Amino acid sequence: MNRRKKIKQLLEAHAKKANAKLAPKSNKPKYISKADRAKLEAEAAQELVTPAE
């Protein structure tokens, strides 16, 4: 690989990363671990039980 090609490749890679950061985020929901999901579910169940008393 010659020097010019190597430099061009690096600059293109940096530009691609910069554009990716500026791009709008997808509507994909943020990942929630299984333990966190269980904790949230337990809290929701507890809230349902507490107001009934």
TrEMBL record:
Show the taxonomic lineage. Answer: Bacteria, Pseudomonadati, Pseudomonadota, Gammaproteobacteria, Pseudomonadales
Q: Which InterPro entries match?
A: DUF2986
Organism's domain of life? Bacteria
- Pfam entry (one): DUF2986
Q: Which organism is it from?
A: Pseudomonas sihuiensis
Instruction: Report what the protein is called.
Output: DUF2986 domain-containing protein
